[in-house]
Design brief:
Layout lengths: L1 E5 L5 H11 L3 E6 L11 E2 L8 H10 L8 E5 L10 H6 L3 E6 L11 H6 L2 E4 L12 E2 L21 E5 L4 H4 L1 H13 L4 E5 L5 H9 L3 E3 L9 H8 L4 E3 L3 H6 L6 E2 L5 H10 L1 H19 L1 H13 L1
Parallel strand pairs: 1-2, 1-4, 2-3, 4-5, 5-6, 6-7, 8-9, 8-10, 10-11, 11-12
Helix pairs in contact: 1-12, 6-10, 8-11
Length: about 300
């Protein structure tokens, strides 16, 4: 079986493809843009044209790959508006996977053509099932063993708090900044790092050097930033929507509503044992739920069904 992932979303397709290769399958990633955070793909053909020329160029490039792969695994949507090219790929007898990661689905709902022609519809976070009720939650993959030797307690002179939003609005950065300002007024001797517009490699470096990781407070589920932090046994603050917290119990995250960011940061600042406990539980959670080979194996089973 030969698998082609199309799209580049936070490095997820690359992690899946790498794990699928380790399982013995040919798996590659094709993208039509260079990711701003520096994620590499096997085939990258940047397209800057406007509609409809961008769609024409995508189809021309994609035609080079059509005969080489059995599974088309699209991340974020197919090549043409409304997914109309889905009909074509099924005519060619390909296994068609639609994998949603966020804004293309959230508050919009599933495209009719995907519902009709896709073999499987996947979502990367369970909150997206609200808009794709027939979808399957596939947890984002992480290679937990890559980070297992990282010291969860770095030797910092001040407790270091890290926030690295890809978008201030969707991550609730204003609440983080307000909380940090309050902490400093209260006299807490902390170092706050606000990391923006840097490479993924730099984000990982800063996670290693930090004591507390602050993710997001708007969407209601954790992202790749939290996953990578938990891999390194770092305690994570993040807002988990109430219905999801009830369904997925015992998440190793300090669930934090926007108005409680300051209070929960104080809990972690003053309680080293809590930081260590959350870090340890987070790493075990990653190994059980998000380990990349387990995710890759789940996908192979879906492809064959």
């Amino acid at each position: 079986m030969k698998i082609l992932h199309i799209g580049d979303v936070a490095g997820v397709p690359q992690k899946i493809a790498t794990a699928q290769r380790e399982l013995g399958y040919e798996s590659d990633v094709l993208s039509y843009q260079k990711h701003p955070f520096g994620y590499e793909t096997d085939f990258c053909y940047p397209i800057n044209s406007k509609f409809p020329y961008n769609c024409i160029k995508k189809l021309v490039i994609f035609s080079k790959f059509v005969s080489r792969y059995d599974v088309y695994h699209f991340h974020g949507g197919t090549l043409l508006p409304k997914g109309i090219d889905s009909i074509l790929w099924k005519k060619f007898g390909k296994k068609l996977i639609i994998h949603h990661h966020g804004s293309e689905l959230r508050f919009k709902g599933e495209e009719y053509i995907y519902s009709k022609f896709a073999d499987n519809i996947l979502v990367s976070t369970p909150d997206l099932l609200e808009w794709a009720p027939d979808g399957i939650w596939l947890p984002n993959p992480v290679d937990a063993k890559e980070w297992e030797l990282i010291d969860p307690i770095p030797q910092n002179s001040k407790l270091r708090i890290l926030h690295a939003p890809s978008s201030r609005k969707t991550k609730g950065t204003e609440y983080v900044i307000q909380a940090i300002d309050r902490l400093k007024k209260y006299g807490y001797d902390i170092e706050f790092i606000l990391l923006e517009n840097v490479s993924h490699e730099e984000v990982l470096k800063q996670i290693k050097l930090s004591d507390v990781i602050v993710d997001q407070f708007i969407l209601g589920w954790y992202g790749m930033f939290s996953l990578e932090a938990m891999c390194m046994r770092k305690p994570v603050l993040c807002y988990i929507r109430e219905d999801l917290a009830e369904k997925y119990k015992n998440l190793p995250i300090l669930n934090t509503k926007p108005e409680l960011v300051c209070d929960n940061l104080i809990k972690l600042i003053e309680n080293k044992e809590l930081r260590l406990e959350l870090g340890s539980k987070g790493q075990k959670y990653i190994e059980n739920v998000h380990e990349s080979k387990k995710i890759a194996q789940k996908l192979i089973e879906l492809y064959f069904n």
